[in-house]
Amino acid sequence: MASLSILDLVRITQDTDARGALLNARDLAAHAEQWGYTRFWVAEHHNMAGIASAATAVVVGHIAAGTRTIRVGAGGIMLPNHSPLVIAEQFGTLERLFPGRIDLGLGRAPGTDGETLRALRRTYEAADAFPQDVLELQAYLSPEAADRRIQAVPAAGTQVPLWILGSSTYGAQLAAILGLPYAFASHFAPDQLLDALAVYRERFQPSAVLSRPYAMAGLNVIAAETDEKARRLATTQQMSAADQFRGARGLSKPPIDDIETYWTPMEKIQARRKLARSVVGGPETVRAGISAFIAETGVDEVMIVSDVYDHAERLRSFEIIGSLGLNSGAAEAALAAG
Q1: Which Pfam families did the record assign (predicted)?
Q2: Domain limits, the chain
Q3: Which of 4, 92, 239, 328 is deepest in the core (most CB within 10 A)?
């Protein structure tokens, strides 16, 4: 078994505005806490009309304020878009407000298009400094930071847990060198999953944070009472994937009866490749699929994306997943033990 966690896309839908999406995310986190999920993450995406988590630190605080015990964090902050000092200030503040509950996953990609990157006053070359930026951020969060001339107030000493995120072997190598936990985005970039996990484990160097590798991987899971109903719910995510290839990212669409009427043969191939790491079905189908994923990858934790249009149906999907007896709930103990 592995621990189960949630990555919520904070989707703005054709029936729900940004405020509704943010309230739904907080409500889902409160339920997830009751159902035994380990952590609840949101991600930084800019200039995307259908995603409400661009101001990621603000959203993390909103969700943490509506929960009591579940870990809440960023999966992730795209560090090249920011000054490490500012991110340390933001997440150090969150840790002071919600002690022992904040995670900070760090990504190297911009999380947006080139024009928006320029609006952020950043360039693609900023990603080249990612390893140095991670170390600088880590230093601001350390106890020793209190004695330095430049401080990220009130971050010094908070030691907010850092995760390296990735969709290739680059992040795996960096996480291994730094001895940090690693999360692979196989829910949308599945191709290098097994290679990246192998690199991370083979090259891992023990650190003050971890004495052994700790790996997480993303998995799309849509659960319902029956396989047929789950497959219909899954058409929302399939349409979203097709729209991305069309360059037409927009609001989340309600499910349809026949996805074949929506996408072209080429879009179908592209979307299925993007969503290759997906489990869709009734309880037994989902149980078998998640179990197979854990057995194949050996991950310590599965970060589940359940991109379901209707909020009540999304809650039900996560409730079913959480009831299958697959959640080891041992994530924090493993990380604490190093």
Answers
A1: Bac_luciferase
A2: 3-337
A3: 4
Q: At what angle do helices 130-141 and 84-97 cross, to 10 degrees?
A: 40
User: How many angstroms separate the CA atoms of 200 and 219, rounded?
Assistant: 19
Taking the C-alpha atoms of residue 286 and residue 140, their distance in angstroms, rounded to an integer, is 42
Q: At what angle do helices 283-297 and 193-203 cross, to 10 degrees?
A: 40
Q: How many CB atoms lie within 10 A of CB 190?
A: 21
Judged against a pLDDT cut of 50, whether residue 337 lies above it is answered with no
- Kindly report the number of other CB atoms within 10 A of residue 206's CB atom: 11
CATH code that applies to domain 3-337: 3.20.20.30
Residue with tokens 């015990």: 69
Residue type present at position 327: N
- Torsion over CA: 203, 208, 214, 218 (sign): negative
Which residues are paired to 218 by β-bridges? 303
Q: How far is Cα 154 from Cα 132, in angstroms, rounded to an integer?
A: 21
- Tokens matching residue 191: 């191709």
Q: What are 112-157's pLDDT values in tens digits?
A: 777 887 888 777 787 889 999 999 999 999 999 988 999 999 999 9
Structure confidence at residue 249 as a pLDDT band (50, 70, 90): confident
User: How far lies 242's CA from each of 92, 253, 300, in Å?
Assistant: 38, 12, 31
How far are the Cα atoms of 79, 90, 115, 149, 178 from residue 95, in angstroms, in the given order?
Answer: 18, 9, 33, 22, 22
Q: For the chain, list the strands marked E by DSSP.
A: 3-7, 39-42, 71-78, 102-107, 162-166, 182-184, 215-223, 278-281, 301-305
Placement of tokens 């966690």 in the chain: 5
* Percentages (nearest 5) of helix, strand, coil residues in the chain: 45, 15, 35
Q: Which of 225, 328, 231 is nearest to 278 (CA)?
A: 231
Tell me the one-letter amino acid at 37: Y
d(CA 8, CA 59): 11
Question: Do residues 286 and 324 make contact, with C-beta atoms less than 8 angstroms apart?
Answer: yes
- Asked if the model's pLDDT at residue 333 lies above 60, the reply is no
